Design the sequence.
């Protein structure tokens, strides 16, 4: 890529969200807004290599988008609403819209960006579509980049995005910031999307490492953006805290040969303490806002307990059990119950942990746990600690059969080896 | 990737110990800081006292020699910095181009090393370094 092309790409990553948000305020359709913004980008790609990068590239793009938008409006190509109305009415409306566009692009307000985020994460869309649209419209990522991150063909992802835009358009999703109860529900959806993006970067172990790190960073950037746009929402800060604390361990999560290193065995000097500090600050903010007992805040508080411990042995497991108790109350999921059982085993020993785990499994039912390899994996671990080695071996073999993740398989196979060694020495 | 954007203000090498930017300049700077924050890229920022309050410790023959500021022979001293997290060097440069600087001022953009950037033996040498004191 030439230097100018790289610069244009950087400008696009900085400016595209504001550009699309401002246009969408007028068109009320993010698909059309993105098209106009893209048109402006295409113009820049034609003009800038010849004439040089303008002094204020953001303003230049705004102007180009405005010109393209007004042109298209005048030609009526883009005017989709009320097309059955008589021509004179149509023309009048187009003029109104053109004027509004002229005015809108002169100033972008934070609310526009917030509306854009809420629209991209609208519950009418599938979760995959929300993620793709968010990365595209707010992350400024290209379709190719998103496809690469999620290991799907570019064509599939392109279709996913255009289908999403169509769905929003057909459902007449208003370009607005919701209020009241609806706001809470919609904030939840936005946070879920951001957290899933973060998880994709954090947990997935196959594919393109560089792209995964980029996803994790992008999720954090989105979280910090939301922290500015919704400063009073405690869960926004709590999610930022959770993501910062999780990402701060990244350097310690891989061993020399790329194998996974679990929390108790990590070299804690590899943790990023500046990042931990940012996470702690965000968590305090969430707690000061009175949101300490909400789901992301509890999860972040659990992460914080781990990060405060100088060694694995120093971990405040009592505190962690209490936090899991609280989390289980509001989010009675098998995964939370499983983690709680592990915490209990650290406080009261493996037998108590096994009881808690089996109680959780009974409560959840077999179908909820089918395909969830962590259950047999943890169960095997606890049985091993209790010296019930042949049962432990069975559980770990079951876990290996249930996971497709190669690194998880490696980790479990190692545990099986340890187990054989322990059995041999008895 | 993280970058440090270092500000090299015009004439800062000779600034009086109590020199502070004007309220107007600060207001403009805050607008810029806010833009960095809203874009979610800002990680840290600080302003530095002028060199006249500082000291230089030089190692001409391997031993430290202390000289109090100001440092007559030095040009282009750092007045402050931002640390930003962006997706490319070009993006860092684009952000630097948006800063409200005056005539003859300079911003130097430099990428911050991450541990995986180093060869394995260097990483090994850095192993076990506790910077835990950063955590409250």
Sequence:
């Amino acid at each position: 890529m030439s230097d100018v092309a790289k610069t244009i790409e950087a400008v696009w990553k900085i400016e595209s969200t504001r550009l699309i948000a401002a246009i969408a305020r007028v068109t009320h359709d993010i698909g059309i807004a993105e098209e106009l913004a893209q048109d402006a980008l295409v113009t820049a790609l034609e003009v800038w290599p010849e004439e040089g990068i303008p002094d204020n590239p953001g303003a230049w793009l705004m102007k180009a988008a405005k010109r393209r938008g007004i042109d298209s409006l005048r030609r009526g190509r883009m005017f989709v609403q009320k097309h059955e109305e008589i021509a004179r009415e149509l023309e009048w409306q187009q003029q109104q819209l053109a004027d509004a566009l002229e005015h809108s692009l002169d100033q972008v307000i934070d609310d526009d960006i917030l509306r854009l985020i809420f629209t991209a994460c609208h519950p009418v869309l599938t979760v995959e579509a929300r993620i793709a649209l968010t990365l595209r419209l707010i992350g400024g990522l290209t379709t190719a980049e998103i496809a690469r991150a999620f290991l799907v063909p570019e064509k599939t992802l392109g279709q996913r995005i255009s289908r999403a835009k169509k769905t929003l358009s057909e459902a007449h999703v208003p370009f607005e910031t919701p209020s009241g109860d609806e706001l809470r529900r919609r904030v939840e959806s936005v946070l879920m999307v951001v957290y899933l993006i973060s998880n994709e970067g954090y947990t997935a172990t196959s594919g393109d490492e560089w792209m995964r790190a980029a996803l994790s960073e992008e999720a954090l950037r989105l979280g910090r953006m939301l922290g500015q746009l919704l400063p009073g929402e405690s869960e926004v800060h709590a999610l930022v805290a959770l993501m910062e604390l999780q990402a701060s361990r990244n350097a310690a999560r891989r061993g020399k040969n790329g194998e996974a290193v679990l929390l108790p065995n990590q070299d804690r000097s590899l943790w990023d303490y500046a990042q931990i500090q940012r996470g702690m600050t965000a968590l305090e903010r969430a707690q000061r806002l009175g949101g300490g007992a909400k789901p992301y805040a509890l999860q972040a508080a659990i992460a914080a307990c781990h990060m405060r411990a100088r060694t694995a042995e120093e971990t405040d497991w009592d505190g962690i059990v209490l936090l899991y108790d609280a989390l289980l109350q509001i989010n009675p999921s098998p995964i939370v119950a499983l983690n709680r059982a592990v915490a209990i085993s650290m406080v009261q020993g493996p037998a108590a942990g096994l009881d808690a785990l089996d109680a959780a499994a009974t409560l959840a039912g077999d179908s909820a746990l089918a395909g969830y390899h962590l259950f047999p994996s943890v169960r095997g671990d606890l049985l091993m600690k209790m010296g019930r080695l042949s049962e432990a071996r069975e559980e770990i073999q079951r876990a290996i059969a249930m996971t497709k993740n190669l690194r998880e398989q490696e980790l479990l196979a190692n545990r099986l080896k340890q187990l054989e060694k322990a059995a041999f020495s008895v | 990737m993280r970058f440090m954007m270092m500000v090299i203000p015009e004439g800062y090498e000779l600034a009086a110990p109590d020199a502070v930017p004007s309220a107007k300049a600060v207001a403009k700077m805050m607008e810029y800081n806010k833009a960095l924050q809203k874009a979610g890229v800002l990680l840290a920022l600080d302003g530095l006292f002028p060199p006249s309050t500082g000291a230089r410790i030089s190692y001409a023959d391997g031993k430290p020699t202390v000289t109090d500021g100001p440092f007559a022979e030095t040009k282009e001293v750092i007045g402050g910095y931002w640390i930003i997290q962006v997706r490319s060097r070009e993006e860092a440069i684009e952000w630097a181009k948006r800063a409200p600087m005056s005539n003859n001022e300079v911003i130097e953009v430099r990428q911050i090393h991450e541990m995986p950037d180093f060869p394995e033996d260097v990483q090994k040498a850095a192993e076990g370094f506790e910077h835990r004191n950063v955590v409250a």
About this structure: The beta strands of chain B are 2-8, 42-47, 55-58, 65-68, 80-85, 106-111.
